Every structure is written in C-alpha cells, then in structure tokens.
Amino acid sequence: MLIFLLKRVGVVIPTFFGVTILTFFLIHIIPGDPILIRTGERGLSDERYAEMRAEMGLDKPLWKQYVTYITGVFSGDLGKSITTQVPVIDEFFTLFPATIELSVCASILAVSIGIPLGILTAVRRGSFFDYSVMTVSLTGYSMPIFWAAIMLILVFSVNLGWTPVAGRMSAMYWVERVTGFMIIDSFLSEEKGAVLSALRHLILPSIALATIPLAIVSRMTRSAMLEVLNEEYIRTAKAKGLSPFKVIFVHTLRNALIPVITVIGLQVGTLLSGAILTETIFAWPGIGKWMVDSISRRDYFAVQGGILMVATIVIMVNLLVDILYGVINPRIRHR
Amino acid sequence: MKRLFSIVLLAAFTMISGAAGVFAKTYVFCSEGSPEGFSPAFYTAGTTFDASSRTMFNRLVEFERGSTKIVPALAESWDVSSDSLSYTFHLRKGVKFHTTKNFTPSRDFNADDVVFSMGRQHDKNHPFHKVAGGLAYEYFNGMDMGTIIKSISKVDDYTVRFTLSKPEAPFIANMAMDFASISSAEYADKMKAAGTPEKVDLEPVATGPFQLVQYQKDAVIRYKAHPDYWAGKAKIDTLVFSITPDSSVRFAKLKAGECHSMPYPNPADLDLMRNDPNITLMSKEGLNVGYLAYNTTKKPFDDRRVRKALNMAMDKQAIINSIFQNAGKVAKNPIPPTIWSYNDAIQDDEHDIDAAKKLLADAGFPNGFETDIWAMPVQRPYNPNAKRMAEIIQADWAKVGVKAKIVSFEWGEYLKRSRKGDHQTVLLGWTGDNGDPDNFLYVLLGCAAADNGTNRARWCNKEFDDLLLKAKETSDVAARTKLYEQAQVVFKREAPWATIAHSVVNEPVRKEVVDYRIDPFGGHVFYGVDLK
Amino acid sequence: MSENPASAAPVEKLGQTEFVYIHPFWEFWNYFRSSKGALAGLVFIFAAILVAVFAPFIVPHHPFEQYRDALLVPPVWESGNSSFILGTDDLGRDILSRIIYGTRISLSISLMVVILSLATGVVIGLIAGYFRGMIEMLIMRLMDIMLALPSLLLAIAIVAVLGPSLVNAALAISIVSLPHYVRLTRAATIGEVNRDYVISSRVSGAGVFRIMFITILPNCWAPLIVQSTLGISNAILDLAALGFLGLGAQPPTPEWGTMLSNALQFLQRAWWVVTFPGLIILLSVLAFNLMGDGLRDALDPKLKK
After folding, report:
1. Mean pLDDT throughout C54-58?
2. For residues C257 and C240, what is the distance between their CA atoms, to the nearest angstrom?
3. Is the ipTM of this complex over 0.95?
C-alpha cells in the first residue's frame, strides 16, 4: 500500500514541474507585450519602454526569468500581476472562492439529479422513460455552454424576470467579505434577504455549468448500474428472492458508484473549463474569467501563477481520486 | 413579549429612517470592468478613472460636468504670466479630506497637497516617486509634462506656482486631466512614518464627492457620499459599481432594474432602449475620431491622388449605418465637432466611384492594385467592430479595382507594428484627453509624431506642422482657432487619412435617475446625480 | 481491452444449435440499427454531408453577399422577407446560406481535427504501449501535464501563440485532444502486446513497425472509432467556443461559433441571429454523440445482450 502511495505521489512531482515549464514558455512565446497592450493608442517612448521591461525583469533571457519564477514558486511567491501590481497569489485567493462556490453548486446539482436519474433509467432500461431521459441528457451534453447560458438569461431573467441576470449579489445588500463564499458571508452579515439573493444569483450559472457534468454523471451511473446488474452475484441475489429495492440500493448501487465517483472527481478539469465561459457570461468574479483576461493582457505573472494553481488543484484531486480508488479497489494497486 | 419587541423594533426603525428624512439612496452603475487601481496618476484606462479620479478625487481645475469647459475646482482662480511661462493657482479654503479607518485628517486641503501630488510625479528624487514599485506616471510622462514643467513651488499656504520650460497653451487643460488629481500630503507623511508608504496608493485619501468603502475585484465597488464635500454632499448616499463585462448582460441588468445606468451599450440594442418606457437613452457626440491612415511613406500611398481616390471610393454612410447602427457621424475633419476650432466649412470628399476610378487612372493605376487593410482585433469607442468595417471598405475598394487583404494582429502587436509602419493602410482612432485640438492634431499628425510613430500615416507636412507649432505658443484662443482651422484645410487637401467616423456616446439610464449628464471624455460622473 | 467482435453467432433452430457465419460488419450493423437515436444521428450527419458538398447549388444567396437594404430581416414566418428564410444578419447577409456554408467549415475542420489528433495520438500511443519503459513514462507524463490544464484554457493559450484563425484553432484543438487518443491507444496496445498472435508474429521475424501497425493496431480500432466520433462532436463544440471568444475563424468566414460571437450583441433585438447558429451547433453535436453512442454499444461486447 505504501509503495502504491509513493508511486502515485512520485508521478505527480514531474507533472508539476512540467506544468510550470509548459505554462511559462507557452505564455512567453505568445506574441504581444503587456506594456504595449496597456498603453494602447497613446504608446510610450522607447526609453520608457525599455525601463519598464527592466523593472519587470522581462529584459533578462528567458531561462533566467524561469529560474526566478520557479524559485519564487517554492517560496510561495508567484510574482505581482502586471496589470494591478497586486501579488498574484492574493488575486487568486480573492477570486477563487467564487469559482469554488459555483463549481460546488453545479456539482451538487449534477450529482443529486444525475445519480437518481441514472439509477431509474438503468432499472427501467429500454422503457420510454429511459429513452427520453437519455436523449435529454445527451442533448445537455451536446449543448454549447455559452449559448445555453445566453438563452437561459434571455428566457428566465429578461423575459420572465424570475432570476437575476448576472453577478453574485444584489447591489442593494452590503455584504462584508469574510470567507469569500457569498452564501456564508451573506449568512454572517446583518442584511436580511442577502442569503436569498445569493442563492437566487446562483441558480442560472449553476444550471449552465451543470449541464455537461449532469449528462456525464447520469449516463455513467446508468451504464455502471447496468454492468453490475448483469453480474453473477446480483442475479443470485434476485434469484434468492430479495426485494428489488434491496437489490438495487444495497447490492448494486454500492458497487456501481465506484466508477461514478471516479468520473465525478475527474470532472474538476471540465468544470474549470466550463467556468471560463460561464463566468464570462454571468459576470461571475471567479478565476476562469480572470485567466482569460490575463492571457489577453499578456499578464505573464498572473497567467503563470494562475494556471499553476489551477493545474495543481486538478493534479491533487486526480491524485486523491486515484488513491481512493486504489483503496476501494485493491486490484488497481498491482497494475 | 415577542410582539412587543417587534413593535419596539419597528418604532425604532421608523424613528431612525424618519430622522434621516428619507431612505438612503443607492445608485447602481453597471460598469464594464475592474479598475487597475485607485490612484489615478499611474493609469490611463477610463475604467480606472471612473472608479478613482472621477468619484474620489478633485483636481485644481476640472471640466464642467457634461462639457469640455474648464472650471475652477480646488483652485478658485489662476493667472498666467505675460510670457505664458508661469501659472499661479489660488487655492480654495475649507476643503475637507476623507476620514478613513487608518487616517483622520487634522487639517484642510492646502498648497502642500498640490506640491506633493504633482511633485511626486515630476521629481525623480521625490521620496514618493517610486513608492508604487513597477508602476509609473504614464499620463504625466505621456503628455510630456516632465519636460513642460520646470518647477512647482508653494508661494503661501493657498497659492502654488507652476513654471514652464516653454510656452504650452494646452497646459491648463492638462491640469484638469485625471492624472493631476490631488491627494493628501499629511496622509502620505503619516504612512511613511508608519513604514507603510504604499498605502498612499492602495487606500488613497482625497477630497472628492465619494469615498471608497468596499472593493471586490470583478464584482463590486461601493462608495459612500463624503459628508463634508466642499461643494455640498452628494444627493445619493451610496454609489455602487456592479462590474459586468458583457454589454448584453449589462443591458439585461438595466432592464431588470438591477442597475440605474450602464456604459457602452450595443449599437444593436439602442432601438430597444429608446422604446423601453423605463429607460431614457441619452446620447452625445463623443470626443473621438476613427480613421484609416494611409502609410504615406509607401508606394502607391505617397501619391495624394491615390489617397483621395480611395477616400472617394469609400461609402462612409454605409459604415455608419451598419457598424455604428447610426450611433455615429461621418467624419470629415480629424477632430470631432465638439472641439473648438472645428472647421465646418470644409467639404467632405464625395462618394463617387467613377471619379475615383479616373483619379486612380491619372495616378497610373487604371486597373487598381493590391494592398492591405489592417483591422484591430478589439472594440474601441471610435470603432465598435474594426473587422466588419474593414470588410465594408474591402468591398468598396474592390469596385475601383483595388484588391485589399484584411490583416489583423493581437492588439499589442498591432499597435507596435503599425507604429513601426509595417502597414499599408491601418484602421485606428483616438479619444481626446483634454478637449484641446492640439491633443488630436499634433499628437496624431505632427512631424514629431511621424518620427515616434503615433502618426500612423507617417505624414510630415511642413505647412501643417508649422501651423501647429505656432498654435502651441499662444494662449489666445481666438488666434489658435484660426491656426487650427487653417491646418484642417491643409489636412483635407493632402488626405493622409480617410476620416471615417465620430462615434456618438450613448448611455441608457433608468427613468428614476435625475440629472445624469454624459461626459464628453467618455467618463462617468455621479456627483450631482439624484434618484427619484 | 476490447475483444474481437464475435464472428460467429449461435442461431437457435428447432432445438438444435447451429453456427452460422455472419460477417462482423452485418453483425455490427444489426446492433447499430436497433438504436433509433444512432440511426437518427447517422441520417442527420449524412444529410449534413450532402448539404456541405452541394452547398453552392442549394444556397439561396451567396454567404458573403451584403444586402445593405435588408439588414436584420426577421425569419420568413415572423413577417420577414420570403427570400431570406431564416432572416439576415446585421450586414444583410442571408443566415440560412451562411449556416449552409458553415456546415462545410464545421464538418471538414472537425474531421481534420480528429484525423490529426487520431493519427498523432495513435502513433504516440502505440510507441508508448509497445516499448514501455522510459519512453512510455515520458509520453505519459507529458499527457498528464496536458490533462492537468483545463483544455479550453490550454487551447486559448495555443491559439494566442499561433494567432487567431480557423486553421490555428483547429490545430490547438487537435493538440488539446491528443491525450485521450494516446491514453486509449496505449491501454489497448498493452492489452494486446502479450497475446499469442503478437508473440507468434514476433517470433516469425516481423519488424517492429509491422507488429505495431499491421498486427496490433487493427485489433485496437473499436474504442478508437468510438472516441473519434465523439471527438468530432467535441471538436465542433470547442471550435465554436473558440470562435465565440473571437479566437477561431475570422470574419467574414461563416463558421457557426464566429457567427454567434458576432451576433451576441443582437440578443435582445434580433433573436434569430443568435438562435439559429446555436441550434445548428447543438443539433450536429447531438447527431455525432448519438452516433458515437450507437457505435459504442454496437462495438462494445460487454453491453451486448
């Protein structure tokens, strides 16, 4: 077991280094220049330009810049954003809770609807219900997420007026930032109705972000259930005359959920990808939008630091899923 | 017991709100992005100025709300010496600074604050010159203020004198610009003593109508009215910027009543806004020009006839109709009509394909030629969709046999390459900084600009340049007007650009908003605005 | 991982079991046909291909033609103009014609993306699975690195490097989707490499390339085909997302995502400009997903009953 753990962790370290190298060189070979983008039509003198590059350390050879960067990473310093001059790590943690809040809500939505749907469709395989749910779920999976988000706003916020259009909180409430999670902060604040407002603002972006994971979870649950239902021991259980309820929930579900949990864990990357589009459209102050903006501003330090943080999270979650999976399913360990 | 308690609570609440007269008025502005910071001297973006200089700060002189007229602000009056080299400002008395959680001002605004705020930008050895690390005084340098100003001195507590190194008529307009905002010198001293000088820029203390209370990046900025504002407390008690980058979403929020006003609507939405009973669509001509510059150092654009012919081939009205959705005006001069000295007597080139063909044939291109049109990748106030605009120009030029390829680069790269003159023709534009014609003509078309590249036509015409230099040396507006009008005649004759459009700034506000005025500089000013 | 599709099926005949040879293709087709969704997907795709091929003959207007007196005309059933069935956009171009031409672009570019990533992915995956050891480790770490970054973000960065254009967007998507093919091929190869038929072929002196491409590869194709079909739908979506962010096809190219990104500003004024390109993306992605599902069910012996 220990060897298995060490092996898995050992794999992570080179990946981590690889991520730093890849992001660093990728962002630096993007044509364009953060200083020129910022000054716009006005431009600036050549001397001033050279001076600013020197101040940011951009005049040094690339490998030297990388060494500075990687040594910074190990002392927990990701540099300062070129645009705002705020340490990248601070900017990241200012925005990250918003992304987490949205992703968690979307995941809850996906799991709490997806798993029951998956079970029901598996049990009633081949029925009209099965076909229609699977078609809807496949449609969700095929949805261009940005388009879906726009349509949701158009229908529910603009035409029906049921939900707020965008943002995290009505401007009428003044919620002090404590944790960065709006639901918690609004709960802690004195403002009445702020919690409700926070929840209402979460509805549409969560739905938009959850469409794809929901489709994946329900389909995955269904096929895992089907696979287990076909196994020898389930047939035996059925033959022994156990109630269908017991067969499904006690024997089948427990075994079927292992791959489902793995899939959910692996959706972290998908969620973050989806967050880029969802956050842009819903004016959600999270890291997805920040990263895209930083790329377009060529804010090297923000991009390097931000992508590294995101990748680290994805790597960690995958590692955790991997280890958990190994713990649950001993066969994996010896592969 | 419980009921009694709630009655008492209700009574208390009524009393409090009764004492305040009315409920606190909150004005919500759906802004388009996060500010880069709150200390205006370091930045150049309008988004940053909206959130900092225009809400929290004052300057010695300011533009009157909704116009380009210069009016007294922290300076009550000023004198200019006869050689135009010395400007003396007489300061306003009794101006209070904001009180923040880590600073309580002990004195009113005075000359020290002016010397501090301008001096730290001017003097490279000033203890606060380099406090902000990698940031520099972009506008101060960009407007060449470092060379223009020779020295800044305090005459007495309420008098400050600026000595210039050369006559520069636009100087007073420069002092109304955002970078010249005044912050507290006392606060700076205190923060320096406490070992945290960077706080001066991170949590600035100024005299403006609103003071910052909360900022969450990409989400919200919250201000409260400065109770002791020198011109009287603002009519709204709380000002909120709700940051919403997408313009369609901003409009949806406005419609849903989640904000009171918004900047930069989609041209496509204007009709809907006009027809919405809850929304008033305000509009005003912007202080900008969108143009296509011919690289006059490259063949065949060194020939005036070719430039004229292409101007005539262009259907500018079609551009206004489809790109601006009529939220723009055809431009005939390089400066917008809102600026003084705009020469309205000038006739624009007629849209005439046959004449254009003939002119091209005269220049030796009866069958046209191949060229490129550079189109920027971003949306700008003077050009909502450069690539679309290029498509239309491409189609128009094809009618006279000129085959143009549309080229685009990433924005920074685009600016850099067009500055180096890699283009044949390039779409670009300009938004005025201070309402002075010099800020358009000299910066964009002067010979000095042809050298440093901001003159994208790389056009250096002695006659034109001499007129501009002469206008810089006199502070008499009437004399300057004559010179600039003459310069525009030369410009039209030589046609280094195709002047395309001046955009119209549109801003929808909700019906309950009282006395909002559009800022011609493209900013957003909320002092003086009220809610019904 | 996957086994050969059964090449013989038992047929019940009056109590006695007789083995009748059925060609694997027909067997597969029977399974595939039984799924109505997969069939619908196939029909849609077939129709889309026809439309794409014959686009110049069926479009009512040229997709770039700007009718400047017919800007933002609504669809024909909304009191529009009968010559513009789905209405026109802000430059007066016929939306139906642009969507039809867009089919060409989306289908051919997505196909290109899949072929590119499939070909590269298969080669890399075969090498990793066949040689194992250091090479495998290097390759798999590289794939891990790519998978650790959110794919859209990585694609955005790659497009930023190459410059925004349709071809570069396609290239970026191919690179981003590479890890899936590599992992799949490697896993399949590892499953096959120690089988008797491979060993016997090696013993009989076949070269490395022959073993890799001729002996092993044909036995791994089932999961790859499924992945490629789903890959096309992913490519359409990613292409549209990049186009939407302004990083894909450049105007006036009538790519669906680019059409959407230009159209977004008309959201509240001219719904048809936004709705139809989005709808067609949804439908074609759905069609490929349905077909992919059908293929998987038909090719995966585990799900057969």
Report:
1. 87
2. 4
3. no
